[in-house]
Every structure is written in structure tokens, then in C-alpha cells.
Amino acid sequence: MKKPWAGRFTGKTSKAVEHFTESISFDRRLWKYDIEGSIAHAMMLSKQKIISQKDSSAIISGLKNIAGEIEAGRFKFTAELEDIHMNIEAALIKNIGDAGKKLHTARSRNDQVALDLRLYLRAETKEIISLIKDLQKIILNTAEKNTGIIMPGYTHLQKAQPVLLSHHLLAYVEMLQRDKERFTDALKRINVLPLGSCALAGTSLPVDRAYAAKLLGFKAVSENSIDAVSDRDFAIEFLADAGMLIMHLSRLAEELILWSTEEFSFIELPDAFTTGSSIMPQKKNPDVAELIRGKSGRIYGNLIALMTVMKGLPLAYNRDMQEDKAPVFDTADTVKACLTVLVQMMPQIKFMRERMHEAAGKAYSTATDIAEYLVKKGIPFRQAHEITGKIVRYCIKNKKQLGEISLAEFRNFSQVISKDVYSRLSAENSVNAKITRGGTSPSEVRKQIKRLKQLIK
Ligand code: ARG
Question: Is the pTM of this model over 0.85?
Fold first, then answer.
């Protein structure tokens, strides 16, 4: 098959080189964007009278036919034609003849591939933003339905203070909100038209870049043709935002794994989202959550991969940049899959109210409430902390919970303690007292829910 760039060559490309350099096996998925971009380009060329109206129409209908063939699975992609751009262009020329040869006027594959990737990432980013929103809504809904559940809050994975389960869940909604904002912000930089930059220098032909941008829904045109064909920072930014997102999803997954253990027993995962063991009949494994946690490795790896591809490249385009696609595609597919499965799994998780509540009151989790009680009685905090520490030590030694020692015993540690101390010791009272803005009291958590519901529509 004759290559579009064959003119300068006398010898044939070696099969091994064709196999080594081709990208059609993976960039074929850009076909829709490639055609969309080419149609806009053809419209611009005829509007500018660079090609005739007739040729432009022939090109556009030819491209639409090719789209139909690809969609129907009838199009024959070939590695001899390297990539998606040349596969489509060659088919166009074959189908419509000479007019097809005019499509690549005032264009290079360098600005073409940058365009395709931007169109692809714009669509993927929007999809991811919408999936994040779905997940937020599900978590928010779960939080709203379970405002009555108290659980232990942890630091260092040691019981720290009782909190509301809803409050804990809302922390993820906040993280996801920032993830969404990051992707939304990245869209600003993705949504820039590189077309017209051609190979690197621009063109002597009278193109109308603003018109092409308008046709393709781009908010801006790139300002420097060398930059436009040589940077992939918009893709790297996408990969970094995905890295942050998967880090959050991985933490959520880790908690689901931990909470579903016999040791925690805070939740029960739905059968549909767990798997059994081939040898241990009793097992119910949280594989879905584990895989979400595990996939974070690939997502981080993809970011490092593309940063490394780019770091030593002299301006402008270099073939190294073809290596941008595998990490970008993999990351987009992977985060979408993780979000989709979480959206389905989250509403089916059963929270074990009694068990969580019981755990919340254990391990002297309301000791800080005693210290704050002492502060309210006029004791400096450092001293109150020490007194409470001694009370806890006394309880541990005598195998008692805080609520199980007598007032006389309490007063051995501080004379300011009176009967009302007992009202501070339950997990409920501890939670109810945390009325700081953003704190864990039911009234504050209700405000957080209200705010987030308005934010996430
Ligand atoms: N397949 C190439 C890529 O993905 C398209 C651009 C090729 N440009 C070139 N000058 N060889 O980067």
C-alpha cells in the first residue's frame, strides 16, 4: 500500500518497522474525533476558498461514509498506514478520488493528532466529571439516610473520638468535589484548538483558525504554533487529576475493605460485589474494592510515564509523543470503570449500626470530652489533658470504662469534677457536643448535607 509520504522514498519500509511504529492498533479509537476534526477542517478550507465548495462537500460526505463503515465494523484498518489519520485519509482518497487529496491542505499530522487528543480528552473529562457527580450523589444520599449512626473516628487507625458515619462519608464527597473542580479546571486548558499550527510553523495559506475553533466548540485557539504541536501538558494534567481522584477512591476502597473484616464488622458488602475463594468455602472477598485500590498503581504510573516521555524532548513534535496515547486511554478507561462500579456498589452496602455504635464508645474515645469538661471548669488545657490521662490510666488498670468509675474516684483526680461529668461520657453526647462549623454534631452534619445537596445537582 502506498504511503502518503512515499514521494521522498525509493525503498520500502521494513515489516518490522511497520510493526514497531504503528499506532493504529490503539489510536483507532480516536476515529470519531479525527473525522469530526477533518470535517471542520474541510469546511474551513472551502469557506476560505482554499479548496472548492464541491471538493469540500465530497470530502465531508466521504468522511461521513467512512464514519458509517467504522461504526458498522466494516472498515479495514491497516498497520501499513501507521495511524488513524493516515488510515482515514487513504480510505477517503480511495473512495472519492482527487478531492480527497485536498483534505490535508494546511494541516499536518502534528496538529491533527493534538486536535484529536484534545477532542477525546474533552469528552472523557466531561464523562468523568459526570460520573464523579453520580458517586457524590450516592454517597450524599447514604449519608443523609444514616445520620443516626455513630461510629469511632480514627487517627493512626486507633480509636480517637466518636463521629457520625454521615460526617465520615461526607468527607469523601468533599474530596470528590475538589476532584471535580480540578477536572473542570483542566477542561479550560484542554479546550484550545491547535489546528492551523500545521507541522510547527503555521501555514502560508489563508486559514481561519477562529472559524474552525467555533465549529469544533473550542473556547480558544492556541497562540503559538510550536507550543501547540509540541506540548502535552493538557494530557499530563488530566493524568494528574485522575491520580488525585484514584487516590481518593483508593482510600474509600481501603476503608470498605477494612470495615468489612470480621474484626471491624462495620459493614456488609453486597454479594453481587464480592467474590468467593476457590479453596476456603467461608470466604467473601472484597475484590472490587481491592481492585480499585490496586488500580491506583497504574494510574500513578501513567502520569509518570507521560511526564518521562516529555521531559527530554526538544521542540517541536517528536515521535516519542505517540507514547502519550496508551497511558491516557488506560487512565480514562480505568477511572471510569472504578467510578461506575462504586456508583453501583455504594447504595448496596449495609451499615451495622449497633456494632459501629458499640465500637464508638470503646477505648476511652470520650476522654477528650472529659478534658474539655475540665477546661470549662477553669482548668488550663494542658493540665486537663494530664488529669484525663491519669483517669484513663486508672480505668485501664482497674479494667473499667470511663462511665463505670464512681464520682469519688473521679474526684481523686480533680475536685472540680461533679456529677454532670457522666453526661459527657457517652458517644452520643460526645458527638452532639461537636458544634464547631464542619464538626460532627448532627446539626452541623445536617448543614453540610444541605450545602452539598445544593452544590451537587
Ligand atoms: N501517530 C502519530 C502520533 O500519535 C501522529 C503524528 C505523526 N506525526 C509525524 N510527524 N510522524 O504522534
Answer: yes
